[in-house]
Amino acid sequence: MSDDQDDLVLSELEDDDLVQQMHDDLYDGLKEEIEEAVNILLERGWEPYRILTEALVAGMTIVGKDFRDGILFVPEVLLAANAMKAGMAILKPLLAETGAPTVGRMVIGTVKGDIHDIGKNLVSMMMEGAGFEVIDIGINNPVESYLEALETEKPDILGMSALLTTTMPYMKTVIDTLVQKGIRDDYVVLVGGAPLNEEFGKAIGADAYCRDAAVAVETAKAMMARRHNRVAVG
Ligand code: B1M
């Protein structure tokens, strides 16, 4: 750490500078600094969602670009991810507090071969914040894990996440298996992850592709409303 950074007192920075510093600290994987800065912004009255999007997600986007361009490597990105998770952990209960009573249940997991979980965790947090009960089955899920969770948890929604172009086709394997077993229509299937798009979602037979966590919440709410109407009418 440089002398400059030793001298830096986060609580003395203006909001804009603090957010900028958080982007730098996330980039450098400085977990404790991220935790401290999140708490400072909360004390200053920032909404948890604003901290999440403007400080944490925006900072991770910079990390992602430099990872893509070969400027950052896996160990550095892991440190950044760790710092991001620490910040998210502080915000999680606060986001959940703003939620309404349970509006539905969702099982969510990252597909087989894929260990990326930050986006999935963010979706889980936002869904919980919106009043959904979320059962997170983690990363690297084969079709059997999804089936088991659907069987035991009986959710309304199945959410799948994939961050790699090599793992996203596995979502189709899961959906095809649900079709084969005759249970596809028992669930709303939502998919997301950076390499996906609308067409892909349609092509694999998902109910919707969700660009980000906010879209996932809105889509889930709309789908639940449609489901309830169907049940009421039918
Ligand atoms: Co990975 N990685 N990574 N990585 N990694 C990407 C995805 C990559 C795009 C980087 C790059 O080259 N630019 C690239 C994929 C390229 C491709 O497939 N075309 C890549 C690669 C290549 C790899 C490895 C193969 C690297 C290697 O080993 N050589 C390896 C693969 C490991 C594996 O999975 N088998 C690998 C490893 C890792 C780390 C372990 C170092 C770390 C993951 C740590 C962790 O998750 N615990 C990591 C990270 C952090 C990234 C980047 C930098 C950031 C991902 C992230 O967390 N974004 C990523 C670059 C990027 O995406 N820009 C990259 C922030 C997060 C909030 O966004 O996940 O998109 P995101 O989630 C969003 C939406 O997509 C959506 O909502 C979320 C919130 O708004 N969403 C959903 C996501 N899931 C959803 C599910 C839903 C709904 C919405 O269900 C309803």
Characterize the structure shown.
There is one protein chain. Helix content is 59%, strand content 11%. The longest helix has 24 residues, at 74-97. The radius of gyration is 19 Å and the shape is globular. With 234 residues, the chain is of the alpha/beta class. The N and C termini lie far apart (65 Å). It has helices at residues 3-7, 15-27, 31-43, 48-68, 74-97, 118-129, 143-153, 170-180, 198-203, 213-233; strands at residues 104-110, 132-136, 157-161, 188-192, 208-210. The protein has ten helices and five strands. The chain has two domains: 3-98, Methyltransferase, Methionine Synthase (B12-binding Domains), Chain A, domain 1; 105-233, Rossmann fold. Strands 2-1-3-4-5 form a five-stranded parallel sheet, with helices on both faces. Strand 4 (188-192), helix 9 and strand 5 (208-210) form a beta-alpha-beta unit. Helix 2 (15-27) packs antiparallel against helix 3 (31-43) and helix 6 (118-129) packs across helix 10 (213-233). The mean pLDDT is 91. The structure holds CO-5-methoxybenzimidazolylcobamide. CO-5-methoxybenzimidazolylcobamide (B1M) is lined by residues 57, 60, 63-64, 67-68, 74, 77-78, 81, 108, 113-120, 122-123, 159-161, 163-165, 190-195, 210, 212-213, 216.
